[in-house]
Amino acid sequence: MSDINQGISLYKEGKFEEALEIFNQLLTNSPQQPLLLLHRGRILSRMGKLDAALEDFDLLVQADNYNADFISDRAVVLHLLKRNEEALAELDRALNLDPNNPYRYSSRAFLKDRIGDLKGAIADYDKAIEMDPEDAVSYNNRGIVEEKLGYKERSKKSFDKADNLVGYQPKEQKSTNPPKDPPTPKPAAETPEQLKNQPAKASSELSFTNYWKTVGRVLSDKNTRAEFFTFIQSKLGKKK
């Protein structure tokens, strides 16, 4: 019989169909096991099966209505379903339950950025940075929002601070060739798990594929966050 470790391994390798089969089998024997529901919900959301994913997260939250992590994951799926008011309310609830965790502010800031509340996003990133002044990801993501608002000097300071925290040194580029088109703005370096590898949308809609395909979820471990942030910088560069 397949075990949870095998399912998680397949999930991390992007073999979602195989991973889903394992978790479906495991849940047949343990239908209310939270860890199994959590991973299956994330797999389903990565596959674009959002209604089914929401059912799993609904069960998790019903079983533990005070678990901020379950609530936050559910909020991501609600956002993907374009139920943004509900998603924001859930992130508010997660923050109220876990107010001393700066990640709750940065998560809500991420959603506010996605739904167009740019000043609200900056306010939340400011709070996250106040609580954890060594968090390069929040500085980086705040810089992106400041750039959207046209705050060029402020965004440069945020980007520079993020670079300094992870020890990233941009390479000097000398060229006599005419300047090329400006680089595409760097995507946010912290992305909720369910937002990765979403199916492409119609051209008239928001395309998650283009936005998420180069980024991965940064875990709470500082070394992992710094390593991933450096990778993003080296691959995409930073718009000045």
UniProtKB/TrEMBL annotation:
<keyword id="KW-0802">TPR repeat</keyword>
<keyword id="KW-0677">Repeat</keyword>
<dbReference type="InterPro" id="IPR019734">
    <property type="entry name" value="TPR_rpt"/>
</dbReference>
<dbReference type="Pfam" id="PF13414">
    <property type="entry name" value="TPR_11"/>
</dbReference>
<feature type="repeat" description="TPR">
    <location>
        <begin position="102"/>
        <end position="135"/>
    </location>
</feature>
<dbReference type="InterPro" id="IPR050498">
    <property type="entry name" value="Ycf3"/>
</dbReference>
<dbReference type="InterPro" id="IPR011990">
    <property type="entry name" value="TPR-like_helical_dom_sf"/>
</dbReference>
<feature type="compositionally biased region" description="Polar residues">
    <location>
        <begin position="194"/>
        <end position="204"/>
    </location>
</feature>
<feature type="region of interest" description="Disordered">
    <location>
        <begin position="162"/>
        <end position="204"/>
    </location>
</feature>
<dbReference type="Pfam" id="PF13432">
    <property type="entry name" value="TPR_16"/>
</dbReference>
<protein>
    <submittedName>
        <fullName>Uncharacterized protein</fullName>
    </submittedName>
</protein>
<dbReference type="Pfam" id="PF13181">
    <property type="entry name" value="TPR_8"/>
</dbReference>
<feature type="repeat" description="TPR">
    <location>
        <begin position="68"/>
        <end position="101"/>
    </location>
</feature>
